Amino acid sequence: MLAPLSWLKEYVDIDVTPQELEDKLFSCGFEVEERYEVGKDISKVVVGYVKECEPIPDTHLHLCKVDAGEAGILQICCGADNVKAGGKYPLALIGATVYATAKDHVTIEGVMEIGQGKLRGYDSFGMLCSGVELGLNEDLYPGAGYNGLLVLPEDAPIGADVKPILGLDDQIYDIAITANRPDCQSIYGIAREVAAVLGKELKAPSLDFTPKDTMKDDFSVSVEATDLCPRYSAHYVYDVKIGPSPAWMRRRLALTGISSISNIVDITNYVLKEFGQPMHAFDYRFIEGNQICVRRAKEGEKIVTLDEKEFELNDQNLIICDGKKPVALAGIMGGLNSEIKDDTTEVMFEAAKFARDNIRKSSRALGQASDSSALYAKGVYEYTTVMAMKRALHLIEELGCGTVSASHFEQNTGNSVEPTEMKVSINKVNGVLGITVPNDDIVRILTNLNMAPVINGDELTLQIPAYREDMEDYPDVAEEVIRMYGYDHVKSTFMPTAQVTMGGLNLRQKSELKIKRALCAAGAYEGMHYSFFSPSDLDLLRLPEDAKERNAIQLINPINIDLSLMRTTLAPEMLRAMAGNQKKGIMEGRIFELGNIFIPKSLPLTEYPDERETICIGVFGKEENFFTIKGLGDVVADTLGVKFDYEAGTKTFLHPYQTAIVSCDGETVGYVGKVSYEVADELNMTVDSFVMELDLRVLSKYYGKPQVFVPISKFDEEKRDFAFVVDKNTTCAEVEKRIYAACDYVTSVTLFDVYEGSQLPDDKKSMAFSVVFTPRDEKLKGKKVEGFVETILNDLKENLGATLRA
C-alpha cells in the first residue's frame, strides 16, 4: 500500500526522519517494502529568475539571462513559448539530472544529465525545465501539464532548491499489510499506527456536514442477500456541479497511483485511499424504479461495467440493482449504465460491507479486478462503512460541488459499530511473552491503540474498536503490547525440555533418508504432492461409505474442492501421478512419495489428528509387473534389516488376483497390487500400473536395527531348481515360507515360472523355484544337499500337499 509522508502528516505530527519512521513502522509489524522520494531522480534544479529575455533572430529560441542565486547569472538558450523576463522557472544547472522526454514532450524516456550546450552558436549553461522534465503532471502540480516551462510561484526564493517547492521531496512508503490487519489498508489506518508508535495525538478527518431538508420519500433500499451484504448505506446529493477537484486532492490521489477524473468521482477514490472503504456514486437519473436492491444475480443475467466489459453472471455473483436492471457489480465495479457524466446533477452515494470471500471468488471467476475488489477481498469493516459515508458527504460540502440532502437510506443486520468490551488476564498476557511488561507500559500502549485499558488487579478490561475484529483473546493483546513495547525486550531462553545437541539428523530422519536413497538406487524417483485431496479421490478408489479412509478432515476454507480434505492415504495422488505421466507420453517409470497421512481421532476435531508417516510406491510400464514392485518393497525391507511377508488380499481399486497384504513379523504394514482395469480406464492409463503403500509408523520400530555382518562363505553355494505341483489357491509366499522354515542353509528362494494347463488337473498349478544353499564352516557335499532337498520336499508335502512335477 502506498502512503505519502505528506498525507500521513495530515493526521499525525511526525517529528522523526523518514528513515526513523520506516524503522518505527517495521518495529511494530509493518514492513516497508520500499521507500522512495517523489523526485528521486531530480538533482541540482533551482529556482531561476529570468532577468533578460531576447529572441534569437530567425529561430524560435530566446537568449536569457537567468539569476540562479549562489550559482550566479547564467546564459540560457530556451525554446519554450512562455519564457519571459520577470518569470521564475525551474533551472537545471550543469551536472543536474532531469527526465529526458520524447518528441511529444510528454513521454519520459529516461534520466539525463545536463551539460554545457550550444544552440545556433550561443552557449547555454543549463536548461529551463518543463513540469514533465521534472516528472510532474497536472495532478501533481498545477501547470505541469503545459507543453512549456513550469511557472513557479512569485514568492519562490531565487536559487532555492525546487524540490520542496514542488513537493518533489515528499516520501512514499510502500507498506506490506499483513492478512490479519485489513484495518491498516488505508492512509488513516496507517496514521493510527504511526500515532501509536510515536506516542502522538491522532487528528481525525472532518466528518461533519449539514444536510438540507430535501427528501426522497419515494426512494427505497433493500438487501435480499444479507449474508453477503450485512450493511448497505445510500445517501442522496443534489445540485451537483461536475468539475475539477482542488489541487491538494488531485495531488494526493496521484501520489497513490490514481488519476483525477472529476470532483464527484475523485471524492469516492479519495475516501477509498483515506479510509480503505470502497464507495460508488450513481447518476440518479439512470436509477429506474426509485429503488436500489442488493441481491444475487440471476443465472445468465448480464452487466456492462465502467471499463465497457460485458459479463454474464450467475447466482454466486452479488449485484446492485435498481427497479429494472443491474447497475453495479457489488464490490468490484460500477455499471456503465449509471456512471457519472459531465452533466450529472443528482447523485446517490453508496457505501457497503460485502463478504470478503464472495468478492474474492467473483473477482477471480469473472477475471475482473479493481482497487475496490482488492480491499473487499482482504476485509472492510462496518465501522469504516459508516465513517466513510460521513467523510464523503463532508467533502461534498467542502468542495462545494453539491448539496447534501437529509435522505439517508441504510440496511444492516444489527451489527454494532461501537467498541466491544474484552477482559483478559495480565498474567496470561505476560505468560505469552515470557517477560513481565510493567502495567504502566501496558496501559500506555493500549491507550495509544485506542483500547481504553483499565487494570483491576490481574484483570485488564479493554474497549476494542469495531475496526479491530482481529482482537479475540489474550494472545492478541500480547501481540499488540510487545510490538509497541519492543521485541528487543524479549530475552532468548531455552525451552524447558530443550537439549543441546551436536546437530545433524535424528534416527528417524537418517532411516527415512536411507530408504529414499535405496529406492533411488533401484531406479525410482521421489515425488511430492499436496497434503490435501478431493472427495472424488476417495470415489476413485471405489471405497465403501464406511471405509476408514473416508473419515477425513474437511478444511473450512479450502483453495478449491480438489484440495478440500486432509489425505488419509497416499494412493490417489500416486495413481494420478502415474496417469499424468502416461498422458504426457512417459510410458514407464518408478515413483515413490514419503509423506504423512492424517487420521482424525474423532470428528469434528477435538484434538490434533494422528499424523502417520507413510511411503507409497508406484511403477508403470510394459516391462513392469507385480514382482518388480514387490522387489521395491523388499528394497525397503532390506534397508531396515527385516523381511516382508506377502499374502493374498483385496483392495477395492486393485486387481482381485494381483493384490497382496504386506506384513512384517506378523503385523500388517501395508498392501501391494496392480491397478484394476476399471480404475485404469477411468484415469486413461494405457500400460500396466502397480502401487504399494507401507505404514512407516509401524516400521519405525526397526529404525536403527543393528545390522549383523555375515561374511561371504569361502565355499561354493549349491543351487537346485524345483517345480512343485500345488493347489491353485496356494501362494508363492506360502511355498517360500515353508522352504525357509525347512532348512537353515537356504539363503535365497526365487520363483521363475508358473504353469497352468492341460498337463495338470484343473485345480492344480506348477510353481518353479530356484533354491540357493549357502555353506557355513565347510563345503556342502552332495549327500548333505540331498538331505536338505528331501527335508524340504517332505515339509512341503506334509504342510501344503506339494509334489514334484514329473
- Taking pLDDT < 50 over at least 5 consecutive residues as the criterion, the unreliable ranges are none
Q: Helix proportion of residues, in percent?
A: 25-40%
Distance between the termini: 86 Å
Strands ordered across the widest β-sheet: 26-29-30-34-33-32-31
Average of the residue pLDDT scores: 92
Number of helices: 20
Count of β-strands:
38
Large-scale geometry: elongated
- Structural class call reads alpha+beta
Largest sheet composition: 7 strands, mixed
- Percentage of residues in strands: 25-35%
Radius of gyration: 40 Å
Describe this structure in words.
The chain is built from 20 helices and 38 strands. The strands form 10 sheets. It has a 7-stranded mixed sheet, with helices on both faces. With 806 residues, the protein is an alpha+beta fold. Strand 36 (746-755) and strand 37 (764-773) form a beta hairpin.
Write the layout of secondary structure elements.
Elements: E1 2-4, H1 5-8, H2 18-27, E2 31-37, E3 43-55, E4 62-67, E5 73-78, E6 88-101, E7 108-113, E8 117-119, E9 122-124, E10 127-128, H3 162-166, E11 171-176, H4 187-198, E12 220-223, E13 231-238, H5 247-255, H6 263-275, E14 279-283, E15 291-296, E16 302-304, E17 310-312, E18 318-321, E19 326-329, E20 333-334, E21 347-353, H7 356-366, H8 371-378, H9 382-399, E22 403-412, E23 420-425, H10 426-433, H11 439-448, E24 454-456, E25 459-464, H12 474-485, H13 507-521, E26 525-526, E27 532-533, H14 535-540, E28 565-566, H15 571-583, E29 589-599, E30 610-620, H16 626-640, E31 645-648, E32 654-664, E33 667-675, H17 677-682, E34 689-695, H18 696-699, E35 718-727, H19 732-742, E36 746-755, E37 764-773, H20 782-800, E38 803-804
Parallel strand pairs: 12-15, 26-29
Antiparallel strand pairs: 1-11, 2-11, 3-4, 3-6, 4-5, 6-7, 6-10, 8-9, 13-21, 13-22, 14-21, 15-18, 16-17, 18-19, 19-20, 23-25, 24-25, 27-28, 29-30, 30-34, 31-32, 32-33, 33-34, 35-37, 35-38, 36-37
